[in-house]
Design goal:
Elements (H helix, E strand, L loop, with lengths): L1 E2 L2 E2 L9 E5 L4 H12 L3 E6 L2 H11 L3 E5 L5 H15 L4 E4 L14 H29 L2 E6 L12 H20 L5 E8 L1 E2 L15 E2 L1 H14 L3 E4 L6 H7 L2 H11 L3 H4 L3 H22 L1
Parallel strand pairs: 3-4, 3-6, 4-5, 6-7, 7-8, 8-11, 9-10
Antiparallel strand pairs: 1-2
Length: about 290
């Protein structure tokens, strides 16, 4: 595949070494399973080491599980050094780890906002800064950053999450251009609502495009062949930039009301979301403790 006359060296998935952050659950787990099914050697990193190890065990001999705190450069260094020590190099990096708190912007705590930015923006930054040097030295490699349509489309009740995903989209686009002549490609995946723990307690559907994690996983794996800059999931959302640029705001607002885009503020089931919110709160508390 080419960009500005540069040809990306092809990557054969059979035997390729893939690292996936946040690989223990949801999109990360589905992506690990699919890469392994295609013959890759998959290294699953997750904040919950037990979940990472269990996920790898369920996949089989082609997977390994490791502890990884994506907010820590030191944790990335240990993770990547361990992978390279075991497999020699990394062919594909999937920055998947993410958190998605919901609710009023003014009610969200500073700690929760910080952990959202640390996981969703600094996570990919740390991951790329740790893995890219080896890829550049080898003149080959591929990075996939899991962003979101929330990186293009603002949603009430997701202000800081929106900010983090707009950041992830911009980070991916800029890095892609910067490394275009290095033999290393950078692609961003922009899913709509996905049926994972991140969306627990939120009424999905009702005009909101919703996909399964396996569909997003296929989009991730497919980028290894086509190396496109951005892939929306589902694909028909790819025209959103153009729509947003040419359609008057009042018409956009009518569409927002039709699909009830304020549901993250008004319709979340607190019981259905309690477990996920507790995990995010615990991570935020731990990070605040480490800052002191």
């Amino acid at each position: 595949m080419s960009l500005f006359g540069t040809t990306y060296p092809p990557i054969d998935l059979d035997g390729a070494v893939v690292v996936i952050s946040g690989g223990g659950r949801g999109i990360g787990r589905a992506t690990a399973e699919l890469f392994a099914a295609r013959g890759a050697l998959v290294c699953v990193g997750d904040l919950d080491e037990e979940t990472a190890v269990d996920t790898a065990a369920s996949i089989g001999a082609r997977a390994r599980g490791y502890a990884l705190d994506v907010t820590s450069r030191e944790s990335w260094d240990v993770f990547v050094s361990t992978v390279i020590g075991g497999f020699g190099h990394i062919d594909i990096l999937v920055n998947n780890a993410g958190v998605m708190p919901l609710g009023s912007f003014l009610d969200e705590s500073d700690a929760t906002s910080r952990v959202t930015l640390d996981v969703n923006v600094w996570g990919p930054i740390h991951g790329m800064r740790t893995v890219l040097p080896g890829m550049v030295d080898r003149r080959r490699g591929h990075v996939v950053n899991i962003a979101s349509m929330a990186g293009k489309l603002p949603v009430p009740g997701m202000a800081v999450y929106n900010a983090s995903k707009f950041g992830a989209v911009g980070l991916s686009a800029s890095a892609r251009v910067e490394f275009a002549d290095s033999g290393v490609s950078v692609s961003a995946i922009l899913p709509s609502a996905v049926r994972t723990g991140l969306s627990s307690g939120v009424p999905l559907g009702k005009g909101m495009p919703t996909v399964e994690p396996e569909v997003v996983a296929k989009a991730v794996v497919d980028t290894v062949a086509h190396r496109r800059a951005e892939t929306t999931v589902p694909r028909y959302l790819a025209g959103w930039d153009l729509i947003d640029a040419v359609v008057p705001e009042w018409m956009i607002n009518i569409g927002r009301r039709v699909i009830d885009d304020r549901r993250a503020l008004t319709s979340v089931d607190p019981n259905g979301r309690a477990d996920y919110e507790k995990r995010v709160a615990r991570q935020a508390e731990n990070e605040e403790h480490d800052r002191r």
